């Protein structure tokens, strides 16, 4: 055996190894490709051998060749063979090759599943490690699904080396198999606190990566990360966490407030530049998120800006770059503080490093004002001339346009100057952004009426100068400008000085070399010009001149009729016929100018880009409904080609009808023009070049283009924008002088008065008056435009699938698939375990069982999460001062927002600011709702017989969620009971206890504003009894009320929570109280009061607690429970629903149910056990209760009797 | 995973971009379309004839990555004992193995150099023990080959060979 191996090795001596291959390639510089193909042939031979070492060597060489760009996918199977070698050395070679060349399309990849699983569970940590590393590069959805469970197990491996790799690869698994995220998340979270720093760092890495895409699902982890941030010393981890916080703060401004201080400390203390920089970045993110609420963080902004300035001034170019990058983030919300550093930014614009120049350009955007716009743009224009690379020049061009056009041309005082700038920009050869310039020209000319005369003059000069046409359209996008020029000259032809000259320029033969969509615009606007000229000539009674123009058109238009572009051809032939007709009329001395120009009468208004989208769908219109029943597929398929063919034939054979009635033609044109005017896409849309007609006449008809070389390249009569700068300066100077004069007078007047203004003379933006009366036409929007401005998310975003609510408890169906042997475990499935108990029953109890379990899990989760609850953590009230708070929070922890739902903030923003001082906090409404809904789902079909809760109350309990509830056939049961109501406000409430606090209950009060007034300063006060008292903020007396932490606009409702301390819970009791508030409406504000009686039933002290049947039996056997029973007759409800009702309204849980007999259990907040045995007879129900307190039991049973009586 | 042709194109363009930059400019390059859009950046370091280029998205700290490259180079230096470019050229597989201990599937795995070196050493030991008897003749041959080499080529500019693009985030 050993001999054979040695023999094999000796054979190998003459195989090339990787080093030989590399050396060989380097020695064959001149015939490298030939040498490599030789090597590949050798490798193919080697792969055919049985010896795994030879194969591994071959694969190793292949990996190198892959790196050089050779396709090695043909060897995929051999790679898998090497991957499955038993020796680590070979295995590693195999996995390396796989990670370099396997991808989702590799078909043999599915063969690797079992091999990888084997390696993952290998006793050698390096086998496992190498498999994880490889898998991370080529994981596919199938592999992810099949291996997710194995990898999850590895996350708790004893070796940190494996743990960290397993944790990290989970991200890749999540991406490919999003279903695995929820089951794996608890463990991932656990790893955040792993003792090994590497594992911890990996977990932070994964969660940061996840949270970056869908931050809202990870808000609940903020406390944990905060802890890590304050405890960790690993800068790498710190940076990641701080970056993560940067992503979270926009969602939760309170988080930002909490972060500011530790981050500021870090900024002051750290020596690591990378950390400092990230801190500054996150502080900026915080400040941005706070900017709407509290503006008094100027110290922090100053600190950031100051630190960034140090970075930018640093000689290290990297820091300079990053400083500018971060500065641009501040700019968005705090432009003032950045503007102070304009000098620095302008200086960076001259930097030799392109990356830095680009960043400085970004900043410039926010630094312009009316005062300095011209100066800055002038500077940029000199850069444009100097710029060597086209990318940077294009970037400059877009920036100039961005800067000038920002916020509706806010900073432009002289549009003549701007038009000149645009015209100057057209001299750029080879830019891709011609269309941008064109769009600006159109926009300005349409929206600034005062500029039209000037614009038309400039545009006609552009049309006249040949340099734009001369440059070949393939090479340059600048000819797009002609599109705008032609349209402007045509549309506003009344302003043209020399219309005839422009007309001729537009009809030059060279125009036909332009792209089709531009020619189309030319043709259309030629007619507009023509109409204007006709009018002019006819008014001057110069009929011969008018006929000359017509003749010109008749001569020149055919060149467009022959165009290969459908749009050009169609327009040209239409217009040619029209002009010919006009010619006939002219010959008869009929005045036609009026009618021709009537074609283009009317004003074109700009339409907002989103206008189309915002048109509301009229009521009753279903866009998805078929108007006619769709034809069956087979039919349409048969007919389509035929129809198309016919259509084409018709078009060829149909004789053109040039004698179409002029009136009719005009009418049609008018209709089309109207349609086009209403179409927001008309101006910009380019005709689709899909169909091209090849029926152009023969070669002899093609006009020979005369290339006119004598055309001067310099645009004649073009004013330089620089002149405007000078003019503008003079103008401003004059203005200032005038103003000063006026001011002096004013000041003198003021001096005479008693009050003195200390206004210093600074030239602010507002002082500069625009040169011409700028009347910017606003863009039109359809009536009743929808206000929503949602930008559609990209449905193909791979990260969207990972937008998963992670706080919901896991359902059974979500478990990761585990590889099992098929016959072995079927009898052990959990479903089967339940069967003996409920075997004869319908399926419903089973479902209930599941719900029940889920609830248990929820309970457990509740306890686990107690310390980490986000709202609690975010409230800055010290927990010791208000122990009640903690309890309250536990109640609301259960579930976090449903997917896609957002907390209704808006109006509460103001209230939120004061919240930190308040004892009560608004719990996340949806959390509560969700919890409730879970509970309600079961008994919802039974609610009609319930009288205690009138339907109106239920609506009050679900006020925000309209929309989600509508789908359900019956409104669900609500435990919310009407507390009090008047014309202003309606109050409903619910009392909840918790097992963690034995003497406290939380009263959730839903306040609904029923009036059209704005309700504010709400305060709730209760007359405490000996037994029950309201928990008030520290320092307030027993007579003070507790403020409600929000305000209510009309029609809005919200929920406030109040904590009560209870001594004895065995008796029900009532507390008298008052809600006082200020109602404010147009007429003024009034102070109002609403009295109520808060009823604490014994039931409200119970907490639904699950109990297992064996524990239940023990409890009953113990004998320390006293017993009592009731019997209610006349029950018509089914037993199942009856139990549901008891569970829901009396907070019991079913322990066991056999036929029409069930045992139930609940527990009071003070730890009393309450056991029930419910039996259903023909028409009656008897309830036997056992409880550690007899009074409590009898009271509970009384309350239950009342409920049952309504069944 | 992109095709070999695209990979080569990326490497060529990256080399082109990086190599023409001056010595004292910043080490960041804004992402072009080729490397996956504006969210991605090229971050590089220049050591003598070698460029180490990482392509990262916005979830990474720029300065952090510069440190990471430094760690990578120092690790290479330790593992190869005074690394030179020929080491990297002739032992690409080893370079890959070292990188795999630092970056896994495009995500940073380990930044602690001692930890990386420990793991690499342990794997080398394992490799040696596996080679055992069977490996001996091959090693002898290899030694002979090296002796017979007329000269080890010098002064060849293969700057772009160390550009490790395929493993980084944008090439998922």
From TrEMBL, chain A:
<feature type="compositionally biased region" description="Acidic residues">
    <location>
        <begin position="952"/>
        <end position="969"/>
    </location>
</feature>
<protein>
    <recommendedName>
        <fullName>AP-3 complex subunit delta-1</fullName>
    </recommendedName>
</protein>
<dbReference type="InterPro" id="IPR010474">
    <property type="entry name" value="AP3D_dom_metazoa"/>
</dbReference>
<keyword id="KW-0333">Golgi apparatus</keyword>
<dbReference type="GO" id="GO:0006896">
    <property type="term" value="P:Golgi to vacuole transport"/>
</dbReference>
<dbReference type="GO" id="GO:0010008">
    <property type="term" value="C:endosome membrane"/>
</dbReference>
<feature type="compositionally biased region" description="Basic and acidic residues">
    <location>
        <begin position="731"/>
        <end position="740"/>
    </location>
</feature>
<dbReference type="InterPro" id="IPR002553">
    <property type="entry name" value="Clathrin/coatomer_adapt-like_N"/>
</dbReference>
<dbReference type="InterPro" id="IPR058898">
    <property type="entry name" value="Mu_AP3"/>
</dbReference>
<dbReference type="GO" id="GO:0048490">
    <property type="term" value="P:anterograde synaptic vesicle transport"/>
</dbReference>
<feature type="compositionally biased region" description="Basic and acidic residues">
    <location>
        <begin position="855"/>
        <end position="869"/>
    </location>
</feature>
<keyword id="KW-0597">Phosphoprotein</keyword>
<keyword id="KW-0813">Transport</keyword>
<keyword id="KW-0175">Coiled coil</keyword>
<feature type="compositionally biased region" description="Basic and acidic residues">
    <location>
        <begin position="899"/>
        <end position="908"/>
    </location>
</feature>
<feature type="compositionally biased region" description="Basic and acidic residues">
    <location>
        <begin position="795"/>
        <end position="840"/>
    </location>
</feature>
<keyword id="KW-0472">Membrane</keyword>
<dbReference type="InterPro" id="IPR011989">
    <property type="entry name" value="ARM-like"/>
</dbReference>
<dbReference type="GO" id="GO:0016182">
    <property type="term" value="P:synaptic vesicle budding from endosome"/>
</dbReference>
<feature type="region of interest" description="Disordered">
    <location>
        <begin position="731"/>
        <end position="970"/>
    </location>
</feature>
<dbReference type="GO" id="GO:0043195">
    <property type="term" value="C:terminal bouton"/>
</dbReference>
<feature type="domain" description="AP-3 complex subunit delta">
    <location>
        <begin position="660"/>
        <end position="807"/>
    </location>
</feature>
Automatic annotation (TrEMBL), chain B:
<dbReference type="InterPro" id="IPR016635">
    <property type="entry name" value="AP_complex_ssu"/>
</dbReference>
<keyword id="KW-0472">Membrane</keyword>
<keyword id="KW-0813">Transport</keyword>
<dbReference type="InterPro" id="IPR011012">
    <property type="entry name" value="Longin-like_dom_sf"/>
</dbReference>
<comment type="function">
    <text>Part of the AP-3 complex, an adaptor-related complex which is not clathrin-associated. The complex is associated with the Golgi region as well as more peripheral structures. It facilitates the budding of vesicles from the Golgi membrane and may be directly involved in trafficking to lysosomes. In concert with the BLOC-1 complex, AP-3 is required to target cargos into vesicles assembled at cell bodies for delivery into neurites and nerve terminals.</text>
</comment>
<keyword id="KW-0333">Golgi apparatus</keyword>
<keyword id="KW-0653">Protein transport</keyword>
<keyword id="KW-0968">Cytoplasmic vesicle</keyword>
<dbReference type="InterPro" id="IPR000804">
    <property type="entry name" value="Clathrin_sm-chain_CS"/>
</dbReference>
<feature type="domain" description="AP complex mu/sigma subunit">
    <location>
        <begin position="3"/>
        <end position="126"/>
    </location>
</feature>
<dbReference type="InterPro" id="IPR027155">
    <property type="entry name" value="APS3"/>
</dbReference>
<protein>
    <submittedName>
        <fullName>AP-3 complex subunit sigma-1 isoform X2</fullName>
    </submittedName>
</protein>
<comment type="similarity">
    <text>Belongs to the adaptor complexes small subunit family.</text>
</comment>
<dbReference type="InterPro" id="IPR022775">
    <property type="entry name" value="AP_mu_sigma_su"/>
</dbReference>
<dbReference type="Pfam" id="PF01217">
    <property type="entry name" value="Clat_adaptor_s"/>
</dbReference>
């Amino acid at each position: 055996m050993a001999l054979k191996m040695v023999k094999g090795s000796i054979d190998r001596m003459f195989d090339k190894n990787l080093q030989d291959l590399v050396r060989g390639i380097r020695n064959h510089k001149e015939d490298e490709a030939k040498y490599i193909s030789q090597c590949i042939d050798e490798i193919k031979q080697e792969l055919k051998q049985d010896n795994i070492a030879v194969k591994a060597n071959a694969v190793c060489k292949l990996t190198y060749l892959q790196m050089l760009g050779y396709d090695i996918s043909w060897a995929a199977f051999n790679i898998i063979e090497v991957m499955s070698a038993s020796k680590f050395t070979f295995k590693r070679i195999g996995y390396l090759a796989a990670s370099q060349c396997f991808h989702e399309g590799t078909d043999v990849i599915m063969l690797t599943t079992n091999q990888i699983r084997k390696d993952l569970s290998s006793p050698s940590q390096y086998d496992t490690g190498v498999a994880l590393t490889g898998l991370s590069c080529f994981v596919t959805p199938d592999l992810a699904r099949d291996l997710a469970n194995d990898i999850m197990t590895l996350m708790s491996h004893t070796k940190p080396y494996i743990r960290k790799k397993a944790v990290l690869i989970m991200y890749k698994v999540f991406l490919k198999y999003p279903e695995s995220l929820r089951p794996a998340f608890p463990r991932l979270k656990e790893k955040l606190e792993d003792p090994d720093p590497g594992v911890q760092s990996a977990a932070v890495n994964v969660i940061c990566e996840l949270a970056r895409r869908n931050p809202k699902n990870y808000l609940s982890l903020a406390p944990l990360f905060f802890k890590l941030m304050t405890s960790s010393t690993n800068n790498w981890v710190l940076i990641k966490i701080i970056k993560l916080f940067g992503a979270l703060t926009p969602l939760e401004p309170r988080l930002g407030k909490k972060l500011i201080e530790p981050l500021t400390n870090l900024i002051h203390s750290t020596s690591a530049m990378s950390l400092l920089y990230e801190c500054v970045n996150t502080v900026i993110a915080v400040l941005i998120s706070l900017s709407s609420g509290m503006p008094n963080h100027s110290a922090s902004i100053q600190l950031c800006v100051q630190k960034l300035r140090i970075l930018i001034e640093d000689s290290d170019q990297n820091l300079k770059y990053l400083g500018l990058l971060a500065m641009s983030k501040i700019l968005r919300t705090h432009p003032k503080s950045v503007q102070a550093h304009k000098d620095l930014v302008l200086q960076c614009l001259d930097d030799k490093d392109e990356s830095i120049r680009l960043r400085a350009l970004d900043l410039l955007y926010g630094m312009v004002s009316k005062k300095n716009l011209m100066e800055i743009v002038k500077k940029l224009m000199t850069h444009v001339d100097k710029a060597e690379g086209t990318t940077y020049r294009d970037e400059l061009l877009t920036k100039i346009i961005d800067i000038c056009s920002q916020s509706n041309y806010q900073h432009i005082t002289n549009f003549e100057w701007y038009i000149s700038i645009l015209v100057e920009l057209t001299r750029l050869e080879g830019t891709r952004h011609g269309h941008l310039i064109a769009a600006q020209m159109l926009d300005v000319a349409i929206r600034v009426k005062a500029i039209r005369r000037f614009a038309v003059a400039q545009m006609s000069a552009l049309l006249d100068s040949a340099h734009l046409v001369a440059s070949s359209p393939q090479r340059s996008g600048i000819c797009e400008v002609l599109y705008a020029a032609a349209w402007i000259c045509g549309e506003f032809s009344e302003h043209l000085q020399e219309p005839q000259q422009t007309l001729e320029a537009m009809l030059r033969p060279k125009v036909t070399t332009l792209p089709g969509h531009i020619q189309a615009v030319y043709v259309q606007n030629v007619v507009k010009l023509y109409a204007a000229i006709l009018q002019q000539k006819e008014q001057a009674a110069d009929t011969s001149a008018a006929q000359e123009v017509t003749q010109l058109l008749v001569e020149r238009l055919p060149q467009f009729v022959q165009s290969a572009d459908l749009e050009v051809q169609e327009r040209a032939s239409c217009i040619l016929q029209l002009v010919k007709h006009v010619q006939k009329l002219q010959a008869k001395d009929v005045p036609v100018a009026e009618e021709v120009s009537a074609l283009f009468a009317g004003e074109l208004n700009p339409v907002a880009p989103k206008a189309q989208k915002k048109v509301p769908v009229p009521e009753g219109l279903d866009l998805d409904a078929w108007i006619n029943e769709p034809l069956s597929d087979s039919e349409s398929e048969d007919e389509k080609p035929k129809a198309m063919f016919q259509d084409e034939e018709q078009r060829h054979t149909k004789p053109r009808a040039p004698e179409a009635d002029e009136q009719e033609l005009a009418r049609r044109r008018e209709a089309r023009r109207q349609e086009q005017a209403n179409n927001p896409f008309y101006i910009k849309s380019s005709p689709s070049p899909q169909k091209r007609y090849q029926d152009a006449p023969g070669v002899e008809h093609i006009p020979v283009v005369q290339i006119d070389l004598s055309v001067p390249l310099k645009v004649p009569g073009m004013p330089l924008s620089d002149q405007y700068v000078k003019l503008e300066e003079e103008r401003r100077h004059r203005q200032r002088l005038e103003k000063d004069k006026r001011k002096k007078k004013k000041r003198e007047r003021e001096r005479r008065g008693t009050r003195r203004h200390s206004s210093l003379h600074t030239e602010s933006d507002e002082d500069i008056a625009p040169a011409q009366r700028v009347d910017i036409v606003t863009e039109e929007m359809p009536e009743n435009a929808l206000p929503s401005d949602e930008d559609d998310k990209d449905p193909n975003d791979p990260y969207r699938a990972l937008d998963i609510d992670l706080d919901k408890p896991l359902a059974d169906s979500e478990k990761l698939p585990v590889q099992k042997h098929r016959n072995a475990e079927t009898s052990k499935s959990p479903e089967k375990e339940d069967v003996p108990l409920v075997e004869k029953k319908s399926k419903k109890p089973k479902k209930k069982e599941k719900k029940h379990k889920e609830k248990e899990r929820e309970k457990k989760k509740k306890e686990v999460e107690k310390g980490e609850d986000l709202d609690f953590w975010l409230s800055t009230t010290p927990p010791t001062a208000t122990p009640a708070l903690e309890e309250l929070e536990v109640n609301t922890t259960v579930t976090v927002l449903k997917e896609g739902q957002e907390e209704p903030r808006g109006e509460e923003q103001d209230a939120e600011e004061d919240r930190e001082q308040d004892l009560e906090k608004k719990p996340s409404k949806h959390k509560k709702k969700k919890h409730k809904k879970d509970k309600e789902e079961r008994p919802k079909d039974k609610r009609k017989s319930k009288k205690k809760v009138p339907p109106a109350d239920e609506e009050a309990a679900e006020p925000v969620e309209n929309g989600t509830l509508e789908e359900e056939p019956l409104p669900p049961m609500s435990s919310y009971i009407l507390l009090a109501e008047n014309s202003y406000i309606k109050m409903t409430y619910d009392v909840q206890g918790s097992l963690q606090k034995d003497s406290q209950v939380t009263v959730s009060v839903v306040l609904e504003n029923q009036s059209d007034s704005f309700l504010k300063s709400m305060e709730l006060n209760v007359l405490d009894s000996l037994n029950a008292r309201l928990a008030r903020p520290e320092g307030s007396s027993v007579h003070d009320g507790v403020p409600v932490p929000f305000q209510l606009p009309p029609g809005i409702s919200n929920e406030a929570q109040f904590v009560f301390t209870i001594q004895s819970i065995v008796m029900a009791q009532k507390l008298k109280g008052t809600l006082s508030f200020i109602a404010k409406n147009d007429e003024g504000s009034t102070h109002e009061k609403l009295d109520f009686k808060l009823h604490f039933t014994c039931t409200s002290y119970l907490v639904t607690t699950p109990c297992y049947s064996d524990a239940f039996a023990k409890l009953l056997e113990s004998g320390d429970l006293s017993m009592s029973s009731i019997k209610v007759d006349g029950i018509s409800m089914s037993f199942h629903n009856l139990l549901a009702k008891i569970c829901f309204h009396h907070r019991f849980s079913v322990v066991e149910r056999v036929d029409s007999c069930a045992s139930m259990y609940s527990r009071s907040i003070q730890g009393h056990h309450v056991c029930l045995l419910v039996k259903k007879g023909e028409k009656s129900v008897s309830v036997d209760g056992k409880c550690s307190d007899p009074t409590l039991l009898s009271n509970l049973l009384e309350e239950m009797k009342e409920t049952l009586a309504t069944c | 995973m992109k095709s070999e042709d695209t990979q080569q194109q990326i490497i060529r363009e990256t080399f082109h971009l990086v190599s023409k930059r001056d010595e004292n400019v910043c080490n960041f390059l804004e992402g072009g379309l080729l490397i996956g859009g504006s969210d991605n950046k090229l971050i590089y370091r220049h050591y003598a004839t070698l460029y180490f280029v990482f392509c990262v998205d916005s979830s990474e700290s720029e300065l952090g990555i510069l440190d990471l490259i430094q760690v990578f180079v120092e690790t290479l230096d330790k593992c190869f004992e005074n690394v030179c470019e020929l080491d990297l050229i002739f032992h690409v597989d080893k370079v890959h193995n070292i990188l795999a201990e630092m970056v896994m599937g495009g995500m940073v795995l380990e930044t602690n150099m001692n930890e990386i070196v420990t793991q690499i050493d342990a794997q080398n030991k394992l490799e040696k023990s596996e080679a055992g008897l069977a490996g001996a003749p091959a090693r002898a041959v290899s030694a002979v080959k090296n002796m017979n080499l007329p000269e080890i080529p010098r002064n060849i500019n293969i700057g772009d060979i160390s550009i490790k693009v395929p493993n980084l985030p944008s090439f998922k």
